[in-house]
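Record filed below.
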Amino acid sequence: MGAPILVVDDDAKIVRLVRTYLERDGFTVVTASDGRAALQAFREHQPLLVVLDLMLPELDGLALLRIVREDSDLPVLMLSARGSAADRVYGITEGADDYLAKPFSPAELVARVKSILRRSGPNGRPPAKEAGALRFLDLTIDLDRHEVAQSDHPVPLTAAEFRLLTALVRADGRVLTRELLLDALYGATPAEALDRTIDVHIGRLREKLGDDAERPHYIGTVRGAGYRVVRPVGE
């Protein structure tokens, strides 16, 4: 039996509904109804993905997400009754890979889960066709292990940050629009996806790489167009 999906929500009806739909599609599911129980389940079961409600007793969803992000790039799909653009951007800023507002369609949630896992691959790794490594300046992107090293020092990236960096490096200096980068994250751009989502991810990626948006070493902004990697001098 493979690693499960962890569903965390204090609403028992939502948990039952999500569990039913995920299990119909062949996923193994474990559940938790509060943040502390979810943290224990995360450590015990090492899930493939977490479906995480924002508002939880004991330990809220954002606090739990920050703890998880300290040592894991485990994909996280955040749920919340607060579905404004600002709330969604905030969830992404805190490290979620995707954000679904309540009320939601269970079929859409399953589709989002599948989309995230296709890009993360089994056990958090990219699909076999992504085997190999990419190199850019002092960065090594290990596509088998889903890891990035900067001058041989590991850089902990979320699954979304990893996909964006990979897409930019593969573009080899060509400008990628926010729409193209959203496609790199979701496969097909969701109708409610926000350009601001990409800006947030890029900002977090730059921070982890020690990059400066004004004088970039890795990722440059092309105003009104999108982003690209900064090619080394002489190339």
User: Anything to note?
Assistant: The chain has a mean pLDDT of 83. The first helix runs from residue 12 to 24. The longest strand covers residues 49-53.
